[in-house]
Specification:
heterodimer; A: mainly alpha; globular; B: mainly alpha; MetI-like fold; two-stranded antiparallel sheet; 14 helices; 3 strands; about 5% strand
Amino acid sequence: MPYSLRRWAERMAPHLILLMYLLLALFPIFLIVINSFKTRNAIFGMPYQLPDSETFSLIGYETVFSRSSFQQYFLNSLIVTVLSLIVILFTGAMAAFALSEYAFPGNALVGLYLSFGIMIPIRLGTVSLLRLMVGLGLVNTLVALILMYIAQGLPLAIFILSQFMRQVPRELKEAARIDGASEYRIFWLILPLVRPAIGAIGIFTMIPIWNDLWFPLILAPGDQTATVTLGVQQFLGQFVSDWNAVLASLTLAMIPILLLYLVFSRQMMRSITAGAIK
Amino acid sequence: MPSSPTRKFPAHLLVFLAPATAVYTLFMVYPLLDSLRLSFFAQNGASETFAGLQNYVTLLTDPLWAPRFWGALRNNFVFFAVHMLVQNPLGLLLAALLASGGRARSIYRTLLFMPTVLSVVIIGFIWQLILNPLWGIAEGLLKAVSLGALFQPWLGQQSTALVTLSLISVWQFVGIPMILFYTALISIPEELSEAAYVDGASGWDIFWRIKFPLLLPTVGIVTILTFVGNFNAFDLIFTIKGGLAGPEFASDIMGTLFYRTFFGFQLQLGNPTMGTTVATLMFLIILSGVLLYTYVWQRRVTTYEF
């Protein structure tokens, strides 16, 4: 083989393999989305074709919106995710600040205690958690989900944030102390400096909360409190033979998280990369 | 490390630590410990009585319970093995290709990670539709490459259901090892491979002799994350196969066994304390994996900082 051709082949081989895998990764998603906009006959007759004026149909979406409380599910997911996230990031940052800033007796022990939950899944305590929620009268409320997602998200948030807070130059804090700033004020000054870490943790914490099936299924299975993931799971169970509705509900459930991901993917990837290099 | 030493426990410290510690203790640590406690109690209707190790003996030896437990444990190891043999090498391959450069790599990376951010429930249904003989997508694609005869209802057969489900999970989560290996790979200084290249080493040699040893810490992290994730898995199998994890429990893993045991499913009545026994055994399995990683792997493998 001539040298230049060989070089060209060597350069193109990675692209070829990546493109092939990309096809495998995206084709199923693509197929679901395009077929959700087609008539039933077209779904079965020509599944690989894009919808055209003849095959285009929104019947699936009409069924989803008339037969399920999809808007309610979205709202529930949004409330649960956003509130959990805010509390995790704020209380997590406070705890991380205490652990990274003050040498108090038991500092290492508290740090270890709080990081225990990074590896041990909270799911294993479900039986007692359910009893606790029953005792508190919180079953079938969004509050139960929020409290439990906060507990689940805190360990990793505290662990990562305290590492970032240790890197904030000490002079900055000492200067503020000399100026008479309170410890609370210093915390507020530090918070914007760890913004990149907060962003990264935010995304990593949010995705599992939004996608979780287990806890909505067990703690809040009612239709009023169902999240998108649970709502879709139950809707699909009932409408399993209505292909238009199935495809439409899958597409509806995918869109928000994919949009969010595409908007934030650059920051997310950058923060993983930065974290790894540090 | 902490800077200003303080003698007593000051008020602001309490304010900073209390909210997170309180929620974490009440909703994570307490339920886990209480579950451990309950696993030593027998369920009598709504109340429980102390029973020592009876639940464990029943679960591990009773002819009704033991086959389910050992079956789920075995299946869970198969589930894990498929991830280790397919997901992680594939993640490494994709990462190596991404790290080989090119302007398109950030686009590839973003798109390849897309299935990973979706809910397992959605992924489960998508693959159920793709593999459904009624729609005929998988069959049609195989026919297009003259392999139509290979098509089988993989999700429905006892012999293939578990591996098929494992591969669906691999398809979804390959993005995680890919990103972790990729970030590790691009942090290896160029000079190392350049020096080897000048000495006449091939790309293959450079990868396995120089880069791979530097990736060993990441191999460890990926392995333990896979282990914990797999032994805690539930959503995919519940979505596709339901709580009975059929056919004939062929796809039953620890997560589905746990759910069925404490919550009940169809004809099986829920038994909360037996559920906590399953959970405690899952806890011990996961904990031993984490300890093995922390005290054996992490101590043997050197991490290089560049």
